[in-house]
Hints:
Elements: H1 2-48, H2 65-83, H3 105-110, E1 126-129, E2 132-135, H4 136-160
Antiparallel strand pairs: 1-2
Helix pairs in contact: 1-4, 2-4
Amino acid sequence: MKQIYILTTFMLFSLVTSPLFAQQDSFTKDYLDRLENSRKYLILVAETMPEDKYDFRASPESLTFAENLMHIGYAIDWHSQSLLGGRESRDWKTDTIFKVANKSKKEMIATIDLIKQFDTTQFDDELDYFGLNRTKRQIFLLLADHVTHHRAQMLVYMRLNGLVPPRYVLFQ
């Protein structure tokens, strides 16, 4: 009787948790596909802007085109590797990887790296995100918005320089 109880409990647990894990795996796959499309579009934007325009800024307090690009890379690195991945955070003030200084256009484009793997069982884990409780799933979604926000500024900079940005790519 005890064996039947254990087997029944295991089967019920499997029925309940399998769809949850499948949803998390599906979310991860969809998210990574979206982020990869976003990365490709960002690189296309970065390649389209002439290197001599990388120091353009829309106003004195704005980031330059290049600084927006490097800021996106830094934010992806910080969120995916430090905040969510547990690696010690880079210090923005002393970091040289995501600073524009002495980097060519090609070198800046090469710094854009993305989240490759994430343990989906951690999606519901909460953390303190600038004083707010957020799940790791929410952090992933916020990161996608952050990339879009800064890339949109880069697209405006292209227009302000008389350039036609690459056509928008769907599903990102």
